[in-house]
């Protein structure tokens, strides 16, 4: 949902506030009385104050549902499944004795966000609903439309879910608290880890190149790739570092970005950072940006960066790598999936990951992403607000870690194989360090051939894929590209990150402000043009100072003021 659309909905909501509030007030009195009576019944009390206790009678709840392509189940035993009768809803019914109905249904993204906004405007929100951002959550709280989940979290959230939230050091739960009350169950965004440098190791071996650590090492390797053509592309046809032209830097988990290089200079573009004095400042206009841009401009002049990067499409970038036209890009720990097709086109292609460039002390600095991009809320007046906590605990704890029934697990596995979700609650809750948390246990399982110590059902499924990769390597057969990609990302690269010296810095603001609705598109376009022009040489690094001055005058100073006011109010 765009900032402009959210702003429009805020205005409409204010106009209809009195109507919405009357409806909520009526619901609160009756449901409070009913809930109090049920708490005197041991069976109801057990269900209402524990994570996994089933209700004595079926509890029906309405949801704002993200559409699922159940047509993908055609020809399977689940061909007749739908939004209210599928593997997840049957699981919830069996374990908790609850049944969903759809208040509205929409495709994920803009369509769903618009449905959420219109439900808020009307004051007719579902009993349980995922909202897409903090601004919407704040709007719901300020207009008294959602339930306080403090007690529900305390009593009906499992210990493992609480442990997962705690792994974020308070950043996630605090984002959903207003006046000391927990008003939502936040989704979690696991650490993306630092940017990862991916290189063609077979090219490095052919040229006798050592593994890179410093920026100088990286430049030397790419220079050798470009000038000596180890891939046999022909003189002058090997492309340098592959880079995104829309998100040059500043996106946590972004593909083909320069995040690591900017961080080497202490620059964090597009992030709202603490200036050390308790004030939020915009990273893209800080003085540390200039030397980083100077380095990138110099690399481009030397041909170490794809000379055509400013006009490449996403498909172009991937094709350069998989076809062997380029042997270098900076991505993430899951970057192996991008180049998996290389194995189909060239059996000798060997991509290897590196945590680089490193500072003089051997560390790599990264900025963390938004730890919670969406929130699960409960309508104020819904009789069972604890149900949200129970569903979250069942879906993201019990089913993942405790469920042992083979027939049940097969159903979930079948859905996954067909790329169908089906859950009424589409969020994710996982440990901050999820991508390398269980690497040691997985490696031991693969070494011993015994997966019994693996923590989750997802891990057991991954184990079989990784084992098939290792078996193919031992037998000398060509590995399945997907099995190679999974093992390389989740074992090889995750192990590398776990052992590396990673320093994290946390941005202080991820939301929006009133002036952003009108001014941010212009400022963002101006910023992107600055990157492209300075890196490609259309402007000099000294032109960065002019950009900063224009950015401030075009609304940047006003937005910075609003960001600091929002932080102070929070």
Automatic annotation (TrEMBL):
Keywords of this entry: Signal
Keyword Cytoplasm: no
InterPro entries: Bact_solute-bd_prot1
Signal peptide: 1-27
Superkingdom of origin: Bacteria
SUPFAM superfamilies given in the database record: Periplasmic binding protein-like II
Protein name: ABC transporter substrate-binding protein
Taxonomic classification: Bacteria, Bacillati, Bacillota, Bacilli, Bacillales
